[in-house]
Amino acid sequence: MSTADKLTAALLRERLAGTKLALDPTNVMLPPAIERWPDDMQKALTASLKPAGVLIPVIEHQLGLTVLLTRRAAELKHHASQISFPGGRMEDGDVDIVATALRETHEEVGIAPADVSVLGYLEPMPTVTGYAVTPIVGLVAPPAELTVDTTEVELAFEVPLSFLLDSSNAIPAERDFLGQKVPIVEFRYDEHRIWGATAHMLIVLREKIL
Q1: CB atoms within 10 A of CB 169
Q2: Separation between Cα atoms, residue 174 and residue 177, nearest integer Å
Q3: Neighbours of 77 (CB within 10 A)
Q4: What is the mean pLDDT of residues 38-44?
């Protein structure tokens, strides 16, 4: 039986116990083989970045662990209609990037910070829209009562963690960036296409856990 078949909250806590929150939330981990990406994309990912935080909410159900994702509202300026984790940019009142992720999660889907047990952290990652995003992995005990802010989130849905940790579900694909084709990895779950920074975060999470 593989590790993915034995996923529990205790296992996640054990595997992520050694992770640390980056002292500088703008000190990003660049994607692999970035030197083969278009010059404009390289510049966007290595420019001065604004700190942001997202929560990877793992929900502990009796039948297994799931991950909560959102589909962003179509009217948003950046990443409209894309699949993402709840989160956003750091504000002056946030004591750290964890506070940012938990505040934004509360605002977007209604999960209170007190209902999240932080399990660990991934390294900050750059986005082409100018942000350095720190993913925070947090355990949410059910029932997760959601109150979706429809100005930011069109839909919230869950995906089994075992599906996202199965490497056979990470599909090679391409995206267009300023007329150039860039290789990416995406997940397809039901009608949802999970790609971009969100897919990259899930792949890094898989490496931490498995």
Answers
A1: 17
A2: 10
A3: 6
A4: 78
Structure tokens that stand for 103 in this block: 């505040």
In the chain, where are the structural domains located? 3-28+37-209
DSSP E strands in 62-147: the ranges are 64-72, 83-84, 87-89, 116-121, 125-126, 131-140
What pLDDT digit, counting tens, does each position of 97-112 carry?
999 999 999 999 999 9
Residue with tokens 């039948």: 63
Separation in Å, CA 64 to CA 17, 136, 140, 141, 189: 20, 20, 13, 12, 17
Whole-number Å distance between alpha carbons of 200 and 144: 25
Residue-wise pLDDT tens digits, 151-170: 889 999 999 999 999 999 99
Burial class (CB in 10 A: 0-12, 13-18, 19+), 15: middle
Residue 111 φ/ψ, nearest 5 degrees: -80, 120
Q: Is 3-28+37-209 CATH 3.30.365.10?
A: no
**Residue owning tokens 């999970």:** 194
- pTM of the predicted protein model: 0.91
Element (H, E) at 180: strand 180-189
* C-alpha span between 119 and 110 (Å, rounded): 20
